[in-house]
Amino acid sequence: MRRPYNPLMLVRPGSRRHVLLMAAAILLAAAPRATGEEAAADTTAAAARRWFATERLPTFVPLVLFASLVGGFILAARGGRNLFVRRIAGLDAIDEAIGRATEMGRPILFSPGLDEMDQPATVAAINILGQIAEKSASYDHRVSVLNRDPIVMSVAQDVVRSGYLRAGRPDLFREEDVFYVTYSQFGYAAGVAGFMVRTRPAANFFLGHFYAESLVMAETGQATGAIQIAGTDSDAQLPFFITACDYTLIGEELYAASVYLAREPLLLGSLKAQDMAKLLVIIFILLGVAAGFLGVNMDFWAAASGAGG
To answer: Residue 274 — very low, low, confident or very high, per pLDDT cuts 50/70/90?
Structure first.
């Protein structure tokens, strides 16, 4: 008579594989097994399961609406339609600042803030740096970029090199123009201030996320007579930049700046879709407030969910 197959017979007793197989066998033996009635009930419940969860309708509708807005505006931008973007005075002054530095024969200073490369404000600042580098190269002028983070420095070097290349002046690039100062917060502020006092730049760009050192750098630049354009998403530092700089990008203007300068269809369509979505949210909030004052029941999502259930 043939003995039944036992997988444990194929392994050495006491080995690691034997212990694991024994543990698995014990767990399987201890696992509860559904009876025939329970299995049939589970099958009936699965068959009766709904294809559409109506309680998630409040999330689904805005998602579809926003995706449609993004796709529609991107297609419109690629089709050549002129999408209006509000004029930002600080960005319109970039040409003036670069031209002034070129005429005076003095440097252009750019600071991308103190945050790392994975922060949104730093990404926005680096995007603007590419546009500034391209415009500077078209004026036969170089940009000096002072960095606190070594990774940001490496990215800034590539961005500046690409900007010069797009302007047809790759020979202008010098690695020493994009350099690392220090990781210390106020050590970096002292380094930037010292650079401004020694070289007296004609144009200073402070774009990114800043902390308490913002006033030190902005005041030093103002004392040297430079035209200064700043931008940050840090609410606490905005008053200092507004006071000491000629132009200041406030909050989301920093993120929209690269779109404003490049006019690239994909970014432009996304920006317009975000603006339209914000407008719709404001309209719905006002409608809800008005309905609350008038005593109108706006809880139709709950009604829809109840009907679907």
So the answer is: confident
